[in-house]
Structure formats: structure tokens, C-alpha cells
Write a structure and sequence with these properties.
Its EC number is 2.7.7.60, 4.6.1.12. Its cofactor is a divalent metal cation. Keywords: Isoprene biosynthesis, Lyase, Metal-binding, Multifunctional enzyme, Nucleotidyltransferase, Transferase. This protein has a single domain, classed as Spore Coat Polysaccharide Biosynthesis Protein SpsA, Chain A. About 30% of the residues lie in helices and about 25% in strands. The protein has a 7-stranded mixed β-sheet with strand order 5-4-1-6-10-7-11, sandwiched between helices. Helix 3 packs across helix 5. The chain starts with a strand and ends with a helix. About 40% of the residues are buried. Bound molecules: cytidine-5'-triphosphate and magnesium ion (MG).
């Protein structure tokens, strides 16, 4: 079976500020290079495409320097205004190659473990859609805009979604095309697009630490930790 990967890196990182976070380094290496490296470690993966904002093509080239001789990494594709649009652009670019499976990953999740990706791929033998996730461990408070607690919500059965998320390629492409055609542009992950299209979706427990770099504080904390470890 052929497996392709789309790494979405077309965001502008407004919450972290400055140069889009995927092009910034934590420890000695760019966040994007770390995210790509986890997939490159798996021989089962045959093709990898990044979706980028063409305004940052030079930063992209710099970030992948040293990885560009992996022949599985193809030329980047231009993204869109939303994450959902960027994923669809990646899917359309892969369509001529018609892979069996596609994994979609946020460039901003540089700590994903190859063993978790392998677990996700294994699960896709039995289901058309699956995502890495972890059970919610915190007690959940529902609060109003002023921070006043309205109630406490049951957390059993709740999972926090991560990436990568994996799909039978043809099924996800069809779901994304239909969502776009029907003007649905509000999906924040691809599993939600698959759910909307009626596909059965499974959660797969990931490894600890697969956090998404969102704020400058996340980036700085990751940088400090890696500088200690890589000293
Ligand atoms: N992404 C994308 N295209 C977009 C928006 C987001 O490819 N139009 C990607 C980001 O590059 C990131 C992932 O989707 O790897 C998750 O998005 P997020 O963490 O929200 O990153 P940004 O959108 O860049 O950050 P922000 O929301 O703070 O602007
Ligand atoms: Mg965003």
C-alpha cells in the first residue's frame, strides 16, 4: 500500500508572533524540520508534501535544508486562507498519484513520535479514518465570558485530538471536496470533515508530548527544554 503525508505549514502563526513559527528553531533545528523528520524515519511512507504560503518559500527552503535530499519530499504546494483550504490544496496535489492512505500533520507539532505514527498506520488497516489523540485528564469547567463557572462537564469518553490524522486517500479527498462545494469552511481538523461525510473515525492513543506549538510561550519552553537536552 502507498502512503503519502501532507504537512500543513501555510499558517502565519499570529498567536506566536514574528516569523511563522514552523520556520523558527527550537534547540538547534527548525520546527518544520523536526515535524518532517518524524515521517522520514518511517520507510513505509512514500511521499511527503508540504503546504506553504508562497510568500515564505525562501524560509521554507532554509528550514528543509539538509532534508531536501530525501527523494520522498516533493515540491511544496501553495496553501489557502484556512487550514481546511490548505489541506484541500495538498490533497489535490496528491490526487494524480492516488495513494492508498494519506496522513495529515500540523507542521506546528514537532514532537510527534514515529512509533505513534506507525500505530496510526496500523489502525488504518481496519478503519477508513483515524487520528492520534489522548484522553482528557483535567476536570472540565464550562464558564461564561466573564469567567464565571456555569457547570462541570463529564470528561469520560472525551479525547483531545492531535495530528497526524490518517485516512483512505480517496475518501478524504471526496469528503474535503464536498465540504468546500457546500460552503463548509469551519472544520478545524480533518477528522471532523470525515465525520461530517459519514466516515467511521477511530481514535488511536498517541505518545505523550505531541503538543502543538501555539503561543510564543510554547515555543520558548520547547526551545529551553531542547537546549538543555541537546547541550
Ligand atoms: N495552517 C495552514 N494553513 C492555514 C492555517 C494554518 O497550513 N491557512 C497550518 C499551520 O501552519 C499549522 C497548522 O495548520 O501547522 C495548525 O494551525 P495553527 O496552529 O493555528 O497555526 P497558525 O494558523 O499558523 O497560527 P495562528 O492560528 O496563531 O495564526
Ligand atoms: Mg491558526
Amino acid at each position: 500500500q502507498s502512503i503519502a503525508v501532507i504537512v500543513v505549514a501555510a499558517g502565519s502563526g499570529t498567536r506566536a508572533g514574528g516569523l511563522p513559527k514552523q520556520y523558527r528553531s527550537i534547540g538547534r533545528r527548525p520546527i518544520l524540520a523536526r515535524s518532517l523528520g518524524a515521517f522520514m524515519a518511517l520507510p513505509a511512507i512514500g511521499r511527503i508534501v508540504c503546504v506553504i504560503d508562497p510568500a515564505f518559500e525562501a524560509e521554507y527552503r532554509t528550514a528543509i535544508d539538509g532534508l531536501a535530499d530525501d527523494p520522498r519530499l516533493t515540491e511544496p504546494v501553495a496553501g489557502g486562507a484556512t487550514r481546511q483550504a490548505s489541506v484541500l490544496a495538498g490533497l489535490e496535489a496528491l490526487a494524480p498519484f492516488a495513494p492508498d492512505l494519506v496522513l495529515i500533520h500540523d507542521a506546528a507539532r514537532p514532537f510527534v513520535a514515529p512509533v505513534a505514527i506507525a500505530r496510526l498506520i496500523d489502525r488504518l488497516a481496519a478503519v477508513p479514518a483515524a487520528l492520534l489523540a489522548h484522553p482528557v485528564v483535567d476536570t472540565l469547567k464550562h464558564a461564561d465570558a466573564d469567567g464565571r463557572v456555569i457547570g462541570t462537564r463529564a470528561r469520560d469518553g472525551l479525547w483531545a485530538a492531535e495530528t497526524p490524522q490518517g485516512f483512505r486517500f480517496a475518501a478524504l479527498l471526496d469528503a474535503h471536496r464536498r465540504a468546500a462545494a457546500e460552503g463548509r469552511t469551519d472544520f478545524t481538523d480533518d477528522a471532523a470533515v470525515a465525520e461530517w461525510a459519514g466516515l467511521p473515525v477511530a481514535v488511536v492513543a498517541g505518545e505523550p508530548g505531541n503538543l502543538k506549538i501555539t503561543s510564543l510561550a510554547d515555543l520558548e519552553a520547547a526551545d529551553r527544554r531542547l537546549r538543555m537536552e541537546e547541550f
